Amino acid sequence: MYLLILFAPLFGSFLTGFFGKFLGRNGSNFIIIFYITLSSFLSFFIFYEVFLSHSICIINLNSWFESNLLKISWSFLFDNLTVTMLIVVTFISNLVHLYSIGYMSHDPHLTRFMSYLSLFTFFMLLLITANNYVQLFFGWEGVGLSSYLLINFWHTRILANKAAMKAIIINRIGDFGLTISIIMIFIVFFTFDFSIIFSTVPIIFYENNIFIFFSYEFHKLTIITIFLFLGAIGKSAQIGLHTWLPDAMEGPTPVSALIHAATMVTAGVFIILRSAPLLEYCNIGLFLITIIGSLTTFMAATIGIIQNDLKKVIAYSTCSQLGYMIFACGLSNYSVSLFHLMNHAFFKALLFLSAGSIIHAISDEQDMRKMGGLLKIIPITYIMILIGSLSLMGFPFLTGFYSKDILLELTFGNYNFHSLFIYWLGTISAFFTSFYSIRLIYLTFFNLPNNNIKIIKKIHESSLIMLIPLLILSLGSIFIGFLGKDLFLGLGNTTWNYTFFQLPFHTLFFESEFLNINIKFIPVLLSFLGMYFSLLLYNFFHNSYFSNFYYYKLFFYIFKFLSKKWYFDNIYNKFIVYNLFFFGYNISFKLIDRGFFEKLGPLGITQCFNMISIRIAFLQTGLLYHYIFIIFLGLIFFIFWLKQILFFEFEIFFIILFIFFYNQNLITRMHIYLNKLYINKHVI
């Protein structure tokens, strides 16, 4: 049963990918839904056996390869972290597969799309069930490959091509960091197995494992943690390597839902959660994680308030919520980070699939400025996206409220300078989250219609096969947080004792439980203020706001800065991409490819050998003394290389060279003597 949950999506992907032409659309859809539903169904049994019954399972399938100390096997770990991720991945993926049948019904390549989705799910399951870092990296790379195939599914679109290339190239940077980290892990621990590594971390920490780089000393655990986090930055789209995430919206909407809710972007958070024992002994790494995560939260929230593309607004909200999960890990609140990851998966999948329902209804339009007046036309979709948006904002007693608020309370309860800075960044980001969530709903459903009359007449509610996943996800967005809070959170909770290691002075639940009640109300209050200001601006002062020159002049530079997305793309293009293009064209292409290799091509190589052979032919003079002279020189060089064995000094070599090259009389005498020998021989 444990392995079936993993390989069922792979088998379904194989059948539909290679035999979809013979099975037909209906047959392929049935097979793919059957296998992904089977995997989702079995994940609940595994959740009961492992999570609720406290019975961790490890399956060693067979050996992969061995080389001296390096021994890697196909091994699968099922602990509380894994089974929680299994529920999230398989359940969300199952609903996305079902939704895709309706959303992609008019696409002629639906079979290929469904095959890619199942392959994506398999690699994510392989990643979260791995029992060593090499197997985890195999799933890690597979997720990146699948995301490239899915983002570039409509490969005839230039923007889709560019977005897919951008995603996989930026992820290469993070993958490079993860590769360095895995190599360092083997150098330090001589293994890749989680159980051995995590149990020996304290021993390595207290030993003198110092790495010297340019006269600076670094502990090897610090290097491992920093490069490991670099991999998470690329995959989970943290600040600096986040630019691929909004562009990934060029793929079909079900792809966006799967990438942003349950698979690719959560892989970076997962690897940090899995490596918690390594992080606990590296304060520099924890500090870096908290700072990067909090800056990502704030950056993405500010950019989201001025985006006009429906899917990009939700994409930046994903980036912001990932920042919450990351800096929770930096504060050693691993269970809270996982709880927020699970809650986020439900309401973010609901938001994306609801956005897809809107786009599907209005003829593939994504610009919110061209929408409006959809409330009475597609009311069910409105209810679904409203539930998802309220849960995203942390509206009281919805799913997002339970994880986001406890996360901010734990941050405030840390009682040091950087945690206070992070708390206020996270709290202000909650204000912006509410602002752009209400802005999205207002411009889409309540604003005056800005569509063409012909398009308005064609607007319709989505089919039942698309609405059923939305209804299920809406229930999760309402109740999952309440049902899961006792399992994941609380002072004295023993659920994660065998999953997350946490040093005693990193435990903050006690401080958070007894915070002042006014502190706990601040995030909720700012969320309501964000809702209020958004409604006030777009409902009552919308026209005057954009026509008033004073406000335009005051906020012009801020608006420009945010509309340029903090100038990350501009900086990368100017200082990196353009320089690489210049190098590629002027150096690589013109100088090396066309200058060097073309001259050394088939014709150039032939000419080169002809010239060399002609030069060598002149050495064949037929004169004996020339050959003796060359042999004598070769003997001198041979003696030089063997001077240590024959006890010759280095100066002897130069003396002999001096005699042969500068003593013209000796050379002349040898030349005359050899000529006489040659003449006498022929005369006789």
Explain what you see.
The protein is built from 29 helices and four strands. With 684 residues, it is mainly alpha-helical. It folds into two domains: 4-563, no CATH class; 624-684. The strands form two sheets. It has a two-stranded antiparallel ribbon with strand order 1-2. It has a two-stranded antiparallel sheet with strand order 3-4. A hairpin with a 2-residue loop joins strand 3 (210-213) and strand 4. Helix 7 (220-235) runs parallel beside helix 12 and helix 15 runs antiparallel to helix 17. The longest helix is centred in the first third of the chain and has 49 residues, at 4-52. The protein is globular. The model has no long low-confidence stretch (mean pLDDT 83).
Helices and strands in order, then pairings?
Blueprint (H helix, E strand, L loop, with lengths): L3 H49 L4 E11 L2 E9 L1 H24 L6 H20 L3 H19 L6 H32 L4 H13 L3 E4 L2 E4 H16 L8 H4 L5 H9 L2 H11 L1 H5 L2 H22 L5 H21 L3 H28 L17 H15 L5 H14 L4 H30 L6 H6 L5 H25 L20 H5 L3 H24 L1 H6 L1 H15 L4 H30 L4 H16 L6 H18 L1 H4 L3 H13 L1 H20 L1
Antiparallel strand pairs: 1-2, 3-4
Helix pairs in contact: 1-2, 1-3, 2-3, 2-9, 2-14, 2-19, 3-4, 4-5, 5-7, 7-10, 7-12, 9-14, 10-13, 10-14, 12-13, 12-17, 13-14, 13-17, 14-15, 14-16, 14-19, 15-17, 15-19, 16-17, 16-19, 16-21, 17-21, 26-28
Shape call: globular
What's the Cα radius of gyration? 33 Å
In spatial order, strands of the major sheet run: 1-2
- Continuous helix count: 29
| First and last CA, distance | 99 Å
Short description:
This protein has 684 residues and is mainly alpha-helical. The chain contains 29 helices and four strands.
